[in-house]
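quick one if you have a minute, typing this from the bus. below you get a single protein, a line of residues and a line of whole numbers that encode the local backbone shape. could you go over both lines and see whether the tokens make sense for that sequence. anything you notice is useful, everything is just below.
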Amino acid sequence: MSVARRRLVGLLLACAVALSACVSQASPSIDATQRPPSSDSPSSTPTSTVTPPVESASPVETPAESPGATVYSVLAGDTLASIARRFATSVPQLQSWNGARYPSLVSDPGTLLVGWRLIVANEPGVTPLPAPTVRPTTPPVAACRAGNRAGAAPAAVYRSIPGAGPEVALTFDMGGRLDPALKIMNYLVAHKVCATIFPTGAMSQTAIGQHVLAIIKAHPELFEVGNHTMHHCDLVHGGLGSPNTAPCATGGPPTAAFVRKELTDAAAILKAGTGQDPAPYWRPPYGTY
């Protein structure tokens, strides 16, 4: 090959290399495995995904979310009314405070879910009122009797029973009209009401009085018996009496022997009819002693 031809070939090769460099700079290379982005296909670059919040069936509110309120966690057995009573508020107020978070409190206030946290006061640190103590409607058998009758001596006036506790002592005199006596006794038995009965000896000898004594004897768990004297005389001034005044006509203040006989005669009748000794309890007629 001549020198001129070799120069021509070299020039052509130089031009080809230069042209290739220009094309390479103007047109970027495309990887056969790379696909153009499409609106229907996800991008290969990770992006942040925002998921809309889903309302929980039982949302939980922490106390920190309501720093200016008292929050109560619903327990089994709670009702909206019982919670309102314990926190000295009202059902409508609880619905107002919590209805946005628990819409069913407004549409269905009878349904509460355990674990719901309800605003129960618009100030922090409010404590619930103590739950009321439920007393049994029927007292136990042994609760009717004090079980500590005082001894026969020394003599004393009892306005309460020592050691009996904060109980009400229900007593009935039986020294006058007896028409309602059986109705009263049957009512006390039917409702298990405890009472102390103070009959007179004279009234205890009547037909109704004997029925009353029989009821006392049949229900010693309910009834105690006390002495109301034999004839219901005024033991300080004399006179009066029931059902008639003749036995009480002492012509002045009764003697000690008269008073003693009034008590002992009645006690014998009451003990025979009820099986209980009324001593040492007796009630002076007319409150005079």
User: Anything to note?
Assistant: Residues 105 and 122 are 18 Å apart (CA to CA). DSSP finds eight helices and five strands in the chain. The longest helix spans residues 3-26.
